[in-house]
Amino acid sequence: MSVHLQNASETGPFRACNHEYKVSCETCRLSRICLPLALDSGDLDQLETIIQRGRPLQKNELLYHEGTPFQSLYAVRSGALKGYRTTPDGREQVTGFYLPGEILGMDGISENAHASSARALETAAVCAVPFDSLEKLSATMPGLQRHLFQLMSREITEDQLLITLLSKNTADERVATLLLSISRRNARRQLSASQFRLPMSRVDIGNYLGLTVETISRVFSRLQKSGVLSVDNKEIEILDQEALQQAANIAA
């Protein structure tokens, strides 16, 4: 059963942070790329007072639903989520994938309601950051405000990536570009840029890229046979980064 977590009260899945929580912004391994970037310890203490953490989302559980009121931004602490919209004929269109350290929910800022839905691809821990409180806090913290703008810019960049992906002529270019994106995002988290597990299914990848599952499988097979990738179900190893960039039609 889906649960819309952004509507939870302090006694629900999300509640105000307190000392019983072992993970804080100061100790979180993702603080370098998440909201606390460039904040001193005093500012971190203030940020901690507004961040809400709760039980992990289970696979396929909703974080928020398209059309629901916008209340918070969400930082992925572990696991992965997908964003998607519902087309007029009721089909799901995947709009993005969110990995640890990344922020989602910004689609709700302009209209004060979420323009898309977010669902867990696997068990995922998420921090909720009430936007009204964040807005007030960032007004007194130039570093936090600047980083918030950077995160918004990154969101725009990811939207542009989707447009670029769908404008590419071949399936190989689309798949290779997505893999390079995940590689770069892993590197930003100080994880391996060449070996990683894809949290999303082939169906979700195909939906995101506008390709069939069969086509996705053929592309992976071609890239593996040509020595560009090693593929074991969802486990990916990039064997030749330059060749993958060439497959994506991106200059090395």
Ordered list of secondary-structure elements with their pairings:
Elements: E1 14-16, H1 41-48, E2 52-54, E3 62-64, E4 72-78, E5 81-86, E6 92-98, E7 103-104, E8 117-120, E9 125-130, H2 131-138, H3 142-167, H4 171-188, E10 195-197, H5 202-209, H6 213-225, E11 229-232, E12 235-238, H7 241-247
Antiparallel strand pairs: 1-2, 2-9, 3-8, 4-7, 4-9, 5-6, 5-8, 10-12, 11-12
What does this structure look like?
By secondary structure, this protein is an alpha+beta fold. The chain folds into 2 domains: 5-147, Jelly Rolls; 163-247, Orthogonal Bundle (Arc Repressor Mutant, subunit A), CATH 1.10.10.10. It has helices spanning 41-48, 131-138, 142-167, 171-188, 202-209, 213-225, 241-247; strands at residues 14-16, 52-54, 62-64, 72-78, 81-86, 92-98, 103-104, 117-120, 125-130, 195-197, 229-232, 235-238. Strands 1-2-9-4-7 form a 5-stranded antiparallel β-sheet. Helix 4 (171-188) packs across helix 7 (241-247) and helix 5 (202-209) crosses helix 6 (213-225). The chain is globular and about 55 Å long.
